[in-house]
């Protein structure tokens, strides 16, 4: 009988941990959505003012800043850079589509 109680405890702990992951995933999606709402405004501003879609200097600064933040957060900086580069490429794609 104690084996069943132990098993339930393990399953409950796993469920609790997974619920925390689910909550973090939801927060992440909402944060990314908000970021894209803001970058859409940036894209509109750039289009209205005939500014280039991409800003390589800004992108480089962002990569360096995010890599440093990743190190501080004990996250692989290479992973953080890949994630940011993916987001940047999507932002640029959206900006280009908005100009068509």
Beta content comes to: under 5%
- Which whole number gives the mean pLDDT? 92
| Count of distinct structural domains | 1
> From the 3D coordinates, which CATH architecture would you assign?
Up-down Bundle
Shape: elongated
From N to C, what is the helix and strand string?
HHH
What is the percent of helical residues? over 70%
Largest sheet: none
Give the name of the CATH superfamily: Chorismate mutase
The number of helical segments is 3
Instruction: Write down the CATH class.
Output: Mainly Alpha
Number of DSSP strand runs: 0
Structural class: mainly alpha
Find the CATH topology. Answer: Chorismate Mutase Domain, subunit A
Question: Span between N and C termini?
Answer: 68 Å
Rounded radius of gyration (Å)? 20 Å
Q: Extract low-pLDDT stretches.
A: none
């Amino acid at each position: 009988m104690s084996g069943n109680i132990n098993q339930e405890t393990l399953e409950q702990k796993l469920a609790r941990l997974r619920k925390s992951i689910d909550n973090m995933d939801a927060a992440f999606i909402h944060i990314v959505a908000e970021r894209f709402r803001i970058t859409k405004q940036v894209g509109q501003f750039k289009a209205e003012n005939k500014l280039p879609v991409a800003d390589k200097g800004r992108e480089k600064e962002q990569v360096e800043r995010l890599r440093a933040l990743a190190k501080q957060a004990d996250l692989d900086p290479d992973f953080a850079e890949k994630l940011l580069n993916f987001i940047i490429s999507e932002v640029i794609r959206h900006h280009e589509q908005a100009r068509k």
